[in-house]
Amino acid sequence: MTQDTALIDATGTPEDAAAAPERKVFIKTYGCQMNVYDSGRMSDALASEGYVTTDDMEDADLVLLNTCHIREKAAEKVYSALGRLRETKKVRAAEGREFMIGVAGCVAQAEGDEIARREPAVDVVIGPQTYHRLPQALRRARIGERVVDTEYALEDKFEHLPDPTKTKGRVRSVTAFLTVQEGCDKFCTFCVVPYTRGSEVSRPLLQIVSEAEKLVADGVRELTLLGQNVNAWHGVDAAGRAIGLGDLLYRLAEIPGLARLRYTTSHPRDMDDRLIEAHRDLRMLMPYLHLPVQAGSDRILKAMNRRHKAAEYVALIERIRAARPDIALSGDFIVGFPGETDEDFRATLDLVETVGYAQAYSFKYSTRPGTPGADLPDHVPEEIKVERLARLQELLLKQQQEFSQSLIGRTIDLLLEKPGRLPGQLIGRSPWLQSVNVDANSSQIGDIINVRITAAGPNSLFAEVAEG
Ligand code: 5AD
Ligand code: SF4
């Protein structure tokens, strides 16, 4: 699944200055890439209401928290942020200046009424499936109503959102996310996603192709397809034939000007033959795959309802590597799931040793009320979770550093994304999603250039332009 740990400020849409009265919105995005995508689409929707995006909260008339519910801490952060915003609202009220507070995303979906009860300063609560109605919700709130809109909308929000490439002032980028699928029917016993994002829904092929073509016409060179269970995507082609994510990738690969494709996040059960063929055939499908396994013990995998065994996962990785030998793996791991013994944990370490990851996210199990895992016996004491996480992270970090070191001296393709800190320096992405600094005076953002890796730091690589 998609969520990762990064906390991101999404401030994608400055200046639509023509509209009056001009209001400013500050959007704080928590959690996964899908929330980053959603924040962008919410700021497009707000731009059509005359809102410009600011990255200075002090300056904002509306603060929107786009929240994550995946672990307990993520939800707690929202309530403490709301406490601080309540104080700001009091100060603004004394100055006679508008200050509205909105909560969007998965905490909004899961705890909408609870948020409204606990935090009277909140004006609008809006779920991930209804955010196309945000402008109306704000208008209703402005005349004194408190709006909680977390029903699953019958209409397709994507049909009601403004074209992301048409929003004036949206920061243009050479990489973009594109949501193709939302929700999850897998019901892993630790996970809230099936409850917050609902059941699996795939966007239609033509809607996706059309959004991709617009993004590419707007200068995007790399697209990352998003979904909580992206490889469960399914649709129908022009001939009415049922197709899956592999076919979608072949179709998108035909778009002239598009240089790179990625997708995240996948479930091992949905890695079908066609998708593996796409990794074999499409050079533009980057050789990097986020394929969470969560644990290495079959007993724990069963209790987690992952519906595959550790050996099946390892065999799958072997098939994918046979199809695309330069592929690098990324994963998600949970330590301290209820009932996890030392022996079970050892099996996770063994699996990590066997697979070898270029990158990974790992977490202590966090009890989520309402999920089946919460009711299991034998919860693991906190100090054991802490110790297991430290051991796992030590191993994963070692593998990550070994992978980075193995690239030193190699010539690779780099998509240049943004200026670096020093003059003449640019920052790009390797095929394996690493950030790479290069001195490249004669190249521009959006170019894909050949570089030789010269050094590896803890979070990024360094390179020089390769001759010829
Ligand atoms: N506790 C800890 N980690 C969790 N994840 C999902 N739910 C929980 C939970 N209750 C992790 C999984 C998932 C990632 C996005 O977050 O590893 O793949
Ligand atoms: Fe991923 Fe399982 Fe959660 Fe679905 S239920 S989003 S597969 S972790």
Explain what you see:
- The chain has helices spanning 33-47, 72-95, 105-118, 134-142, 157-160, 193-196, 205-217, 245-252, 273-281, 298-303, 310-323, 342-355, 382-406, and strands at 8-9, 23-29, 51-53, 62-67, 100-104, 124-126, 147-149, 175-179, 181-182, 201-202, 222-226, 234-236, 242-244, 260-264, 288-290, 328-335, 359-364, 411-419, 425-429, 435-439, 448-456, 460-465.
- With 468 residues, it is of the alpha/beta class.
- It has four domains: 3-157, 3-Layer(aba) Sandwich (Rossmann fold); 172-286, Transcription Regulator spoIIAA (2-Layer Sandwich); 288-307 and 324-406, Transcription Regulator spoIIAA; 411-465, OB fold (Dihydrolipoamide Acetyltransferase, E2P) (Beta Barrel).
- β5, α3 and β6 (124-126) form a beta-alpha-beta unit.
- The protein is globular, with a radius of gyration of 23 Å.
- The two termini are 40 Å apart.
- The structure holds 5'-deoxyadenosine and iron/sulfur cluster.
- Iron/sulfur cluster binds at residues 1, 184, 186-188, 191, 193-194, 228-229, 267.
DSSP helix count? 13
The residue fraction in helices comes out at 25-40%
Our measurement of the CA-to-CA distance between the termini, rounded to an integer number of angstroms, reads: 40 Å
Rg, alpha carbons: 23 Å
The CATH topology of the largest domain: Rossmann fold
Mean pLDDT across residues: 92
Low-confidence segments, given as residue ranges, are 1-20
CATH superfamily of the largest domain: Methylthiotransferase, N-terminal domain
In total, how many domains does the architecture comprise? 4
> Main beta sheet, described?
7 strands, mixed
> Any ligands, ions or cofactors bound here, and which?
5'-deoxyadenosine, iron/sulfur cluster
Give the oligomer, counting copies of the same chain as homo and different chains as hetero.
single chain
CATH architecture identity of the largest domain: 3-Layer(aba) Sandwich
Anisotropy-based shape: globular
> What CATH first level of the largest domain would be assigned?
Alpha Beta
